[in-house]
Amino acid sequence: MREHVCIFVLFTTTSLFVSTTARGDDGAAASGELSPALVEDIRGSFEMDAETRVRHNAVTNNSINDLALNRGIVAGQDGHFSHKINFKGITNQKASGRCWLFAGLNTMRPKVIREKKLPEFEFSVAYLQFWDKMEKANLFLETMIEMRETSYLDREWEHVLQWTMGDGGWWNFVVDLIEKYGVVPKDVMPETQSSENTKVMNAVLDRKLRADTVTIRKMHAAGASVNELRAFKEESLKEIYRFLVINLGEPPTEFEWRYAIKNKKDDEDESPSAAKESKVEDLTPAVTYTPKEFYERFVGVPLSDYVCLYSDPLSEFHKHYRFTRSKNVFGKPDMNFVNLPIGDLKTYAMQAIVANEPVWFAANVGRDRSDKLGIMADRLYDYDPLFGLDTQVSKVDRLKLRAGASNHAMALMGVDIRDGKPVKWLVENSWGKERGDQGVYTLHNDWFDEHVYNIIIHKRHVPADVLNVFDEEATSLPPWYPSVPSVR
Fold first, then answer.
1. Is residue 356 flagged as an active site residue?
2. What CATH code is carried by the domain that includes residue 244?
3. pTM recorded for the entire structure
4. Active site residue 263
5. Does 325 share its domain with 452?
6. Is 90 exceeded by the pLDDT of residue 294?
7. In terms of domains, do 77 and 125 share one?
8. CB-based contacts of 154: which residues, under 8 Å, 6+ apart?
């Protein structure tokens, strides 16, 4: 959080004394203030008529969302999807912003469960979370070395300081972490209190990195070379590594693992009283893996074969873009994408799901979502008729007003196709079974239009002319571009 100091207030005070008084056509003063006369005029315009009183009584005695819920949408729920990917278990990111990481690993889980005949399986998110924190810390300190002479009033400096040690990320964060560090099963590096509740851990890391920033700038002012600054950074990273081990546990360099193979009896007897222990003959021999070997053995999909497609109505379609400073690993490229109409994203996502391939996607989940019912539908809540208001703005204007960017990542696991077109989508979320319909959501096609921005798709589902756009030089978009905020 940025600290607002008195110096800033004094610096801006002069602008507050600029006259806000304008003159109307008749020469009379037209003040912009909420004057007593204007207040009286507003009060005089209000009448507690019968319709307003009914609304007042309803709203003051009930939940607004319960009153505004569009029952027509709820009544149309049938829970069926023409194409559905089999997946087991609902993950839970708890009080953390790791949705991008959960969604990325959730797209890989069905393949592992299916091909290895596992009754259930989860990757360790804490393992990659550890390395994400280490990489972000290194990237931040390198950025501070890079910006060692930057003014504290610089806009990019302000942006970097806003994201000192956040949980958020994009798909390219997942790719860079897995390619460098591999993956491990959840039971090899399980969740901890700090992995599931990151607020305090992040706050301490934030303090540490800001303190190191002060040291870096002081060292530079005293004439230290870049090599000397990097030597200081390396000592700092040792302290951060120790801090993360205390909070998350130490990530393994290799581990021994075996697993139970699912058999027919597992399908037949799923009652609570069913035996939980596998027979010895159902277990595979214990094998020692490195995290990278485990990924190759159990997933084995080249992540470089996946491309990032975006639908940002503020920028020209069929062009290659990149978000500046949107990475977590120093030396890796920023997030880059081809911008396409939203209908194209639907087409490619539909093709992937029909091919039994989950789709990572990012959306703005802050609107028209019911966690109680597990529904995402445009105008799910009729706020305007309830209050007699007009609050509708376009997707373009929501972005311009900083009210519509992606803020959460999930996985598409199904689609209902009628007459060759998608009607609704099945979503696997990472908020546990207590939210949504046992952890899953039905995403309506109109909600996709309004609130989905980004999908990750295997290039086999993307036409050659679109893939060729990635070969063009990417147009850089600044860190404060409306669509940039990371998903959490």
1. no
2. 3.90.70.10
3. 0.90
4. no
5. yes
6. yes
7. no
8. 147
